[in-house]
Amino acid sequence: MSNVNKHLTTGTGAPVGDNQNSMTAGGRGPTLIQDVHLLEKLAHFNRERVPERVVHAKGAGAHGYFELTNDMSKYTKAKLFNGVGKRTPMFIRFSTVAGELGSADTVRDPRGFAVKFYTEEGNYDLVGNNTPIFFIRDAIKFPDFIHTQKRDPRTHLKNPNAVWDFWSLSPESLHQVTYLMGDRGIPATLRHMNGYGSHTFKWGNAEGEAVWVKYHFITEQGVKNMANDVAAKLAGENPDYHTEDLFNAIENGDFPAWRLHVQIMPLEDANTYRFDPFDVTKVWSHKDYPLIEVGRMVLNRNPENYFAEVEQATFSPGTMVPGIEASPDKMLQGRLFAYSDAHRYRVGANHNLLPINRPKVEAQNYQRDGAMRFDNNGGGSVYYEPNSFGGPKEAPQYKQTPFEVSGEAAQVAYDHNDHYTQAGNLYRLMSEDERGRLVENIVAAMKPVERDDIKLRQIQHFYKADQEYGERVAKGLNLQVPQEVK
């Protein structure tokens, strides 16, 4: 649309006669409070920043589509996964975890990998990371874990003492620590990394049969990583390197793509598998549950406005569609509440009405009012349920598939506490060069830790995963592996 002869207006639409000079009492002032245009500009400017995300603050996003290449109706009735060739529009947000909104892209950190599918049954958010696992497996530990990744409240500096103290006291973190400190801890670009749902989810088909499922987005660009020295150089010279790379690739028509695969586990296997399949610190063996291709995701359009689309985009693992449900994964169960609650605080109770979050199908419910309700707020329609005035009502065919639960209501840990086998397997899968870089990264990260007891406690975990692993880290820190673990 042409901007020729367009008048500048206030937020309420009144034309502005002078946008260069504030209204004053004479040439030297003081400024008059009746200059409502000045007051509106300053007041709006003061409020231009919504609170940044506590985690995943720094991010980049893009629009695209998901095309189904393998019909999944055998496993799920979710329509986006039914019918080969079906295309679903989507939006993705990539992010770092620990840093603030202005932090560098090329730090050693997991990357958020959050996909919003605008399906014909409503939005479906798959909110994962570029790692198939996580540091903890119970949501009650999440605030404490994130506190260790943030700034010390006294010094306002990152605190390696807190990081390694927490990890050494939380041995379930070892698998993810090994992954993070390895080569994949710093992806070369956002286009050259895989994405994962990380958690276990449940799929249900039209016949009411259910399976457990894990998601894997495999990059078609190939996995490429970044060396420490290059990452550090870019962090200083171009802290927005990943954001810029993604934008430029799409702008130049080099559209990045990922192949979505899933692992499928029969419900009954969850009771006998050698690892708890709901423990997000563990993976399922691909030999036991091979990858099955589902479809292809392509990013082909940049946002027109970063704030409106990337910053105000809200994702929640609880945003699901019929045929996709939660599992008993304790970390996932906490996220089902926490993510949407964060958005209600950060963006507002009506965040799902914003264009970037609004479903392509009409939402029909009895939610009313709240700040920034900018549609017709339900008009004069019925505003409660049940009612006898023809308002929307429940549809029993969309009930979730049942699964059996048992036991006493209590605060209990996962039954399986082998935190070392998979971390050791990951170490042994690495080439000698990869192991060398892993150990170098860990040693460099642990050297600033002031207390040897914290270092020794962590070294024990490395040793239990693989003796060589522990011994090489200990040697790098000029320490000895404690005798009690040998």
Automatic annotation (TrEMBL):
It catalyses: 2 H2O2 = O2 + 2 H2O. The keyword Transcription regulation does not apply. SMART domains: Catalase. Pfam families: Catalase, Catalase-rel. Belongs to the catalase family. Residues 9-393 form the Catalase core domain. InterPro entries: Catalase, Catalase_3, Catalase_AS, Catalase_clade1/3, Catalase_core, Catalase_haem_BS, Catalase_immune_responsive, Catalase_sf. This is Catalase. Its EC number is 1.11.1.6. SUPFAM superfamilies: Heme-dependent catalase-like. PANTHER family: CATALASE. It comes from Neobacillus kokaensis. The gene is katA. Transmembrane segments: none annotated. Keywords: Heme, Hydrogen peroxide, Iron, Metal-binding, Oxidoreductase, Peroxidase. Residues 1-29 are annotated as: Disordered.
